[in-house]
Amino acid sequence: MLHFKKRLKKTTIPSEFIKENYKISQEIANIGSWTRDLANEKIHFSDEFYRIIEISPENFKGDLEEYFLLVHPDDLDEYKKTKLKELKGIEHEVGYRITTSKGIKYLHEKTRAIYDKNGNPVKMVGIIQDITTHKTVGNSLREMEDNSFTKKFQFLVKESWDVFEIIEADGTIKYISEAVENVIGFKVEERIGKKVLDFYEGEEREKLSRMIEETIKEPRKKVKGTLVLKSKTGEEVYLEAIMKNAMSKPSIQGIIINFRNITERVEMEKKMVHISTHDDLTDLPNKVYFKKKLREQCEYADETGSKFALMILEIHDIRECNCTIGINCENCLLLDIVKRLKEVLGDIFLSRISEYKFAVIVQGIKTDEGYEKLAEEIVEVLKKEFIIDKFQINISANIGVCIYPDDANDSISIHKNANIALVRATREGKNKYKFFSSGLDIQYYKEFVLRNDLHKAIENNQLKVYYQPIVNLNTSEIIAAEALIRWEHPDWGTMSPDEFMPLAEESDIIIDIGKWMLRDVCSDYKRWIKNKKSSIKVSVNFSITQFSENNFVGNIINIINEYNLDPKFLIIEITENIIISKFERMMYSIKKLQSYGIQIALDDFGTGYSSFSHLSSFKVDILKIDKSFINKVMKDKTNSLLTKTIINMAKELNIKLVAEGIENWDQLLYLRGQNCYAGQGYLYCNPIPAESFEIELDRGKCMPSFANNSSITKLKDRRKYFRIKFHQPLEAKMTVISFKSKNINVGNTKVLIKNIGPGGLLYVSNIKLHIDKDISMLFTTNLLGIEMKFYGSPVRIREKNGLYEYGIKFKLDEHERTGLIKILNQVQVKMKKDILFEEGSFFSGSPAMYFSLQN
Questions:
Q1: Which of 23, 438, 638, 681 is the Cys-Cys partner for 747 at CB 3.0 to 4.6 Å?
Q2: Rounded CA separation 345/359 (Å)
């Protein structure tokens, strides 16, 4: 939410300072730079580059062919080869000459590749440095070698920024040029007679020692390296050193070391690397840096046997800030967000990987509770109000967490799984975090398939409307029906709206589905009138996305008019969170719908927001008590009291009442005792196709079943082999390895095995899968201290208390089945002795408790 108090002041973006500083640094260091786009061959040169080659930008086209004309003919072929290598993203370092108006210049060029998110090179970034002075000194040295250090040479050496040093085999410095004071601050007398290694520390000392050893062992080889030395003032100086063994030369009898200060060049290269691997605004590592860091972290975890967590954090509601009061506000807000994150995370790695997404790599925490605590701290600190130039801004965040190696086996899978967890966290609401579990992966695969297929569901005639009767609880007369959509998917079978409508709501396809469904309901209702069926009302569910459609009410009325129907037959069901989210707009639409005689039903009442306090202002016609209250009405005094309160409140407000989810006679008798007028549920009738519902309409009544729970059909035991029923469920890991003859990799999910035999097993899961012999599953568990694996396909399913029981038929040959029978015989013996449960992964609680703990 934004509270406008003052006009926003103009804010300077930090990247401007970085770019200006970068330009000045190039001028000081006498270094030019260029960027080459490998896709379109366009090259951008810095101002310093043009100064070095002594050509103005107006007189230079900026392509390679023109630049080749400047390169010395003797160096051209070699230089062209490096440019060809660049197209493949191959980095290089090369020296060459160019011809300018003032003569020959010696240049040193170094490049670095920049990659896209798939690891493909997209750009080359390079620098050139004018090293003409250095080369001139070198050439003069060779020309005067026979002159035994003439005065001219002595002057050049003294004034040079290159230091010449001669050491003995044991490292004692026997000669050093006077330029040493210019380069590292030491006077000649402070170095002569000292051991050269004494001026270096740690790794740099070891590196120099290795270079000296290599020079002694290979006299003809020039040994090159970069060293870091602390100057006399304590500053770190980067030295480029070249060693040559001249022990055999009488006039020298030592190792010649030529070194020069390349600190400015190194710092420039570091800046270039930093710019290519860090975010312009926040200066956090960017996605390229993050992916590299993540790979390294996985490798380290593999080598050390340690674990770490990846958290993907997404910020919401920030785009509204941009649209309302400008981009500068958004930038300031992002900087404040980063500041708060750093306060919570400290030294923990934080990266900005996209506009509103951040990645956190957490190591050093040993428990899941520790990761959970950190996620909570991040959410809490971002929930607090931000003040940006006196504007009050509130944002929300969601976090997906994946732990390595528990739930991933490489950098790609942990990144993918953390994003899967983020999607789930976002669906649960604002300021939520979710840990990845392998069960999410199987569910994600299912959703991935459904999301892709949903766009063709209407045109392929796969959607169907089912109807569930709403009855008078005292007379069992059918007074209305709720229209419920089903998707008859060719691979996943008939699916309820809970399985695919959340996916439809992610895009505008929910609007197309809603219009299709209303037309189908109108078509059915028109047929019922024509066939003189009982005159009832029909309720249809609508989402906030549909309500937000332009001319929502007009579109509904137009569809009803297509079938020449009176709008009064229709009841529109909405949830209270839809009304709360856009109250004024929703109340306008509700009043307009009611003006046509359409009734409004408040669905799932009591599950969200402050239901009771808002009820009087909702102006709805019907109140539907959520089934979560009805399910516990006989078991929980609080639920019983709340249900009674809702019924009495509805009566006082003159609102019609419908109880959802009536599944047994105890619930029905309780509701009758409270004078609840109407209800629906499995005790009366499941949602059924239109053709079957017409038969119920002909009867006029829908009587409650005496089976108490008609939703669960008892399955006849058709097993060929015996089954062992465990006293406690056995924990196992399940994965789908192939579907419709296509191999897939969707990770594992934990399940509980209730019984097992030579022919198959029965397991419980919180994930709903289609029953199809073309689904191949793999189960892994531990029994009798042995890891056991079973392959099979689902043959039956039933829902029980919100979980799903699956019957699995094994895919075994007779040899494998015989081996399994022997093991199961041992299991039976140990079960009789009550010692089995010490030798397997058994769970002592209920399946509901187990899956609650998993979540």
A1: 438
A2: 12
Would you call 404 helix, strand, or coil by DSSP? Answer: strand
Give the end-to-end CA distance of the chain in Å, rounded to a whole number.
31
Q: What confidence tens digit (pLDDT) does each residue in 553-587 have? A: 999 999 999 999 999 999 999 987 777 767 777 88
In whole angstroms, give the CA distance from residue 404 to residue 302.
Answer: 9
Count of Cβ atoms closer than 10 Å to residue 551 Cβ: 9
Residue 748 has pLDDT above 80, yes or no: no
> Looking at the domain that runs over 161-267, which CATH code has it been given?
3.30.450.20
User: How many whole angstroms separate alpha carbon 275 and alpha carbon 18?
Assistant: 9
Q: Where does the chain hold its CATH 2.40.10.220 domain(s)?
A: 724-854
Which two tokens mark 806? 């699956």
| Contact in structure between 259 and 180 (CB atoms under 8 Å) | no
At 706, list the tokens.
Answer: 């005496």
- Domain(s) labelled CATH 3.30.450.20 in the chain stretch across 26-130, 161-267
DSSP state of 705: P
**Residue 357: strand pairing partners:** 314
The whole-angstrom separation of Cα 409 and Cα 60 is 52
Class of domain 281-435: alpha beta
Q: Which fold has domain 724-854?
A: Thrombin, subunit H (2.40.10)
Range of 172-181, 334-343, 826-835 with top mean pLDDT: 334-343
Q: Is 230 helix (H, G, I), strand (E, B) or coil?
A: strand
Return the axis-axis angle of helices 509-530 and 552-562, rounded to nearest 10°. 30
Do residues 560 and 532 lie in contact, with contact meaning Cβ atoms separated by under 8 Å? no
Identify the residue whose tokens are 């000649």.
188
In what order do the strands lie in the sheet containing 391-393? 2-3, 391-393, 386-388
Decide: pTM greater than 0.85.
no
Q: Any idea what DSSP says for residue 676? A: -
- pLDDT-derived band of residue 290, with 50, 70 and 90 as boundaries? very high
Cα separation, 517 vs 463, in Å, equals: 8
Kindly report, as residue ranges, where domains of CATH 3.20.20.450 are found in the chain. 462-699
462-699 CATH choice from 3.40.50.970, 3.20.20.450, 3.40.1280.10, 3.40.190.10: 3.20.20.450
Class assignment of domain 26-130? alpha beta
CA distance 842 to 821: 20
Is 561 exposed, middle or buried, given 0-12, 13-18 or 19+ CB atoms closer than 10 A?
Answer: exposed
Query: E strands, 757-785, where?
Result: 760-765, 775-783
Which residues in the chain are classed under CATH 3.30.70.270?
281-435
Tell me: pLDDT of 8 over 50: no
With tokens 């007398």, the residue in question is 189
